[in-house]
């Protein structure tokens, strides 16, 4: 089984925790497909803003780590993705969401990102 992780960290600066609705719906839809279930394990959703060491510690043997990017978590996502790619260089890092620019500038500037998905 190939492990897939999702990261959808809320802003959480005030201690609030927001459930990761967007990635939850993606996972729910994927789990309806037996072919996906046979090959992939949806290992964890990281949605609390926690120290990078703690978040990284939740990830083991990742095949794909997908990040939902918004204004409030872009820098956090970049820092965590960089750590994951350093530790697991073969991992596919995906950035998607509202704050992903449709140009390829981020791919040129951030070599640890492999795939961009635009919009919602």
Characterization of this structure:
This protein has 120 residues and is an alpha/beta fold. The protein contains 5 helices and 5 strands, in the order βααβαβαβαβ. It has helices spanning 21-30, 34-39, 52-57, 74-87, 105-109; strands at 2-7, 40-46, 62-68, 92-97, 115-118. Strand 4, helix 5 (105-109) and strand 5 (115-118) form a beta-alpha-beta unit. It is globular, with a radius of gyration of 14 Å. It starts with a strand and ends with a strand.
Write the layout of secondary structure elements.
Elements: E1 2-7, H1 21-30, H2 34-39, E2 40-46, H3 52-57, E3 62-68, H4 74-87, E4 92-97, H5 105-109, E5 115-118
Parallel strand pairs: 1-2, 1-3, 3-4, 4-5
What proportion of the residues form beta strands (DSSP E)? 25-35%
Question: What is the element string, with H for helices and E for strands?
Answer: EHHEHEHEHE
Spatial gap, N to C terminus: 27 Å
Unreliable spans: none
User: In which order are the strands of the major sheet placed?
Assistant: 2-1-3-4-5
């Amino acid at each position: 089984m190939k492990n897939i992780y999702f990261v959808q960290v809320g802003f959480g600066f005030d201690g609030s925790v927001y459930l990761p609705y967007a990635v939850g719906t993606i996972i729910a839809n994927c789990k309806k497909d037996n072919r996906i279930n046979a090959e992939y394990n949806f290992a964890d959703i990281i949605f609390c803003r926690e120290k990078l060491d703690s978040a990284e510690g939740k990830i083991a043997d990742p095949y794909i780590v997908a990040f939902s990017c918004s204004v409030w978590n872009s820098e956090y996502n970049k820092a965590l993705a960089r750590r994951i790619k350093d530790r697991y260089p073969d991992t596919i890092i995906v950035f998607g969401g509202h704050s992903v620019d449709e140009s390829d500038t981020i791919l040129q500037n951030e070599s640890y990102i492999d795939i961009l998905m635009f919009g919602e």
